[in-house]
Amino acid sequence: MRRILYFLPLCLFLIPIAAQAQDKMLSKEEAVAMALEYNLGIQVAKNTRKIDENNASILNSGYLPTVTANAGGSIDRQNTEGQLASGDSRTADGAETRRYNASVNVNYTLFDGLNRYYSYKSFQERSQQSELEVRQTIENTILQLFTVYYEAARLTENTKNLEQALDISKDRLTRARYQFEYGQNTGLDVLNAEVDINTDSINLLNSRQQLRNTMRDLNLVLNQELEAQFVADTTVSFVPGLEMENMHKEAKSNNIRLQIVEKDMNILSYNVKAAKSVFLPTIGLTGTYGWNESSNNSPLAFLIQNTSTGLTGAVNLSWNLFDGGRGVTGIKNVKIGYENQELLKKQIVLEVERDIRNAWDSYTNALYVFEVQEKNLQTNQDNFSRTDERYKLGQATSIEFRQAQLNLLNAELARSQAKYSAKLAELQMLQVSGQLLNVEF
Length: 441
Known about the structure:
Layout: H1 2-19, E1 25-26, H2 28-38, H3 40-55, E2 66-83, E3 89-111, H4 115-181, H5 187-222, E4 231-232, H6 244-254, H7 256-275, E5 282-296, E6 305-318, H8 326-392, H9 398-432
Parallel strand pairs: 1-4
Antiparallel strand pairs: 2-3, 3-5, 5-6
Helix pairs in contact: 1-5, 2-4, 3-4, 4-5, 4-7, 4-9, 6-8, 7-8, 8-9
């Protein structure tokens, strides 16, 4: 009786935790939608894309003219003395001269050695690359999301299996107590049942703690309150009809790393062409519309007030014939950078080839393990049912019953692990092939 009272507080402690399982179900589709909307990494990537879009706009291309306005004014007071042709002399004390001016200047570059053209092309490539980087961030985030989500689902299944194991152990304890009271067994069976309940209770407690920790990880990915509670969907469906040959072809054309490195190649190609603009002249247009006014109250002044307006235009040409070799050095360095990018592209092509083959092998192996574990679970369920019947009839010992129970529990846990491992292996293969965002989860 004292041992039963010892286990009672632990069981009561577990009841409030079990009540948390009534939280809202978070479907996989809802989880993806929340991640796309709230995940901080995705938001940062989208903001970076906006910056690159701004850089690729016509306003940053250099194709538009520059317009500036200037204005000024001055006041001059002087004492002057002058002599006329007649020989008479005149003086003016505090003679004031006022001058005002305003102008609008327009500058436009007609030709700059094609530097502007290739720089604009480079910005456009970078904007497209930024789109790809957003997609890469989304793919990585979704894979991270489901790694945590399926871990929460696995722990949810494990918790239910451990709860069932604890219920079985409680029924066994009740049966052992009755048998002991009626003299059908020794007190050792009761003690063994109590020890097994204690073990099952601790395992269940640890599983629930792991589930709460994983749920916080999920909330972190979703950018939600860390203590928000959801229930993960434990159903898993696999994408049908996947074939190695098709996945290999898709990876060559749709893998995000290959697409990003291809954009790097285009950007560096434009940079090489833009660097050669130092060998060509720059031709520009300038235009000015100006207004000037001056007034002078000095009696010695020929004109008391003068106002002028006018339009001025000019064409200028600048050709840097020799810059000390800096231009040539810059072109050489940009070409070397392009060669390095070619080597990096070859490396990434090999890595993607390796990744898709490894991902396919991992996927097919994980599916096979899952099928084996399902058969193993069915075998252990049948074995436990038979052992349970024999135990009730007194034909099996408590040790045999406990071993059958543990075998069933281990088979359930292994089957759950295999199921989610196979699904994650499938998602990783779909990511490498560039198809992760084209399937239903």
